[in-house]
Amino acid sequence: MPATRSPRRQPRTKPKPKAPVHDSGFSTPSLDRALAVLQCFGGHPHGLTLSEIAAELKLSVNFVYRVTQSLVSHGYLVRDAEKRFSVGSAMLKLCQPVVDDVPLTEAALPAMRWLSDQTGEAAHLGILSGSEGIVLERVIGRAMIKFYVERGTRFPLHTSGPGKAMLAFTPEPERDEIISGMKFERFQPWTISNRKDFLQCLDQVRINGFATDIGEHLEGHHCLAAPIFDAEGHAIASLWITGPSQRLSEERMLKLAPVVKQAGHMATAALNPRAVAR
Prior knowledge:
The protein has helices at 29-39, 50-57, 61-73, 89-95, 104-119, 161-168, 172-180, 195-208, 250-271, and strands at residues 77-79, 85-87, 98-99, 102-103, 122-129, 132-139, 154-156, 211-214, 221-229, 235-244.
């Protein structure tokens, strides 16, 4: 009898690694991938290029190109001269608190313009976003050399005036949860780099009603911040001015602190007239 041949064994193939795109389970793969494109900007405050988005999400450059162009046209992303994409104004509007149908930026803009006029510096508005802060809006100052931060920029909380101003007036359980996720990266020799010192700093901010950044992140770059409160007296956001250390010295910041606090009061009253006066 002729020998029977055993079936040839097929070579084993390694399973393909799963792409970092969450499948919603509702047969909407294009939407799932488009949302993944937006979500990937959360960990990249300086933006991403087309190829970087495609590599991070393991998607084709052609697909990412189509999605980003659509998101730019709707204002959810913006692209700079170096072809880097970052979060746009439409996306930021979705992130902001709304009180009694009044969006935060709408309520705060008059106070920001007043603050910029009073100080000559750029005024900013920001909120907490996880263990970081995010800039929602800015009013550029009238100084010849302008210092301002773009909308959508994320910033560390332990080095920034607005981060300290918001956390100092955040309910303790929520504050502790946020602080537990902070890295306390040391950017300068004088940067606060541990929880104990940071909590002591927040105690002083509560006493003063304002917070400062004296080059703790970027040397020579100072800022002065005050909180915006909700009806319970908890910080819902922060207003601040920023400028070079030559213009915004420690001495000048102390003189301007009442002005920044007044801008915070104005924004608080505009957002919610029933909010606790501070």
